[in-house]
Structures are given as C-alpha cells and as structure tokens.
Design a protein that fits this description.
- By secondary structure, the protein is an alpha+beta fold.
- The chain has one domain: L,D-transpeptidase catalytic domain-like (Beta Barrel).
- Helices cover 15% and strands 32% of the residues.
- It is built from four helices and 14 strands.
- The longest helix has 13 residues, at 2-14.
Amino acid sequence: MRFRNALLLCGLAASISLAGCSTSSNSSPSVADGQKIATNQIFTSNYGAVEDHGYALPAIPISKVNEKYHRQIVEYPTSERPGTIIVNTPNRFLYYVLPGGKAVRYGIGVGKQGFAWQGEAYVAWKQEWPTWHPPKEMAARKPEVAKYVEKGMEPGIRNPLGARAMYLFNAEGKDTLFRLHGTPEWSSIGTAASSGCIRLMNQDIIDLYARVRPGRNTKVIVQQ
C-alpha cells in the first residue's frame, strides 16, 4: 500500500497538465468465456443498499436514472478482445467486452469540457475504498479541497472516488491521473460533471471492479 501511495504522489507531482480526480452486493453475475447470455438483460434491481467492507452504501433511487444508464448486457460487436474496457464519452457509456459480441454496459458521468482525456491505457492497479488526493491544480480552483492534496480524504460514502477506483497508466507505464471510479452523486450519471475522470454509480463500480484484472492486458480505450 505504501508503494502505491508513493507511486500516486509521484504521478500527481509530475503531471499537472492532466485533469483531475486523482487519488492515492448487489452485482450482476460474472460471465465465463463461452457462457450464453441474454442480450439486453437489465440489472435495474441491483441498486439496493449494500454493506461493503464496513461501509453502508445507500440504495440508489434508480427510477430517477434514465433506464439506458442502468447496468445491462447488450449486443456489442468489436474486434477488441473480452476484458477490454471501452469508454464512449459522447454517449456516456462504459462497455466491458464479453465473448460472443456482447458487453456489459454501464452509465457514466464524464469530465467537463476542458478536463476530458482520450486515448488508450491499461488498468495498472485497483483499490477498494480508496483515499482521494486531489491534484494541486484542482486545489487552486477549489480552495476547500486543498487540505486533501497531501493527507488525502479518508475512504467513506462521501469520498468523491466512491467504493472503488481503477488507475490508468499509459503504454510507457506512467500514471495518466485518469481513473474509473465510483461516486456518491448518482444524479451525475449521464452528464459531464466530473473533473476529468469516469464515474460510475457505486453499485456499478463494485460490479466492474470484480470483473477487471489489473495488468497491461486489460486495455482501456477512451473515445471522444
């Protein structure tokens, strides 16, 4: 853990041009290779209250979220191999590629104009209930978060990174400061409301986290 925190702080110090959400159950079933899956299976019932590692995640009033942003399995023909994550920022979807031309689709919130990032990366590591370290440029814009730059905000249901975070590094092995993470702000899903990173409802990031194996083989493609 100390190594991870040190790595993160180095990334924050070295990368001021990239924007901002840097840091230090009820889930759909995992899908094995070759398993047949019903297309457009929607997991609307999977947004209830969750006790997770001692934290009590409240239920999401999912009826207030457009159904297209509910977690579901969809047809998704692609040449990318299963396990790839494709983020479609214009349409506010994240796809986790499954075998057989299908994917798990999640609704997301994306970065505001001027804070968005695009390209290819990989999930270098992931963390349950992460500590949040905002970058210094965010603290300059929002002085109220300056105290968290060094010491970080402790994990909890109000933490901007939510219940899980996945940390994206580029092909050279450098931290992009771009994260896939949870959020307590379920109403931001489908909007451009975050400071650069991709946010999912906490119940969704828990589901995605369980599917993802960190390493260079877990490619992430962020489309603009």
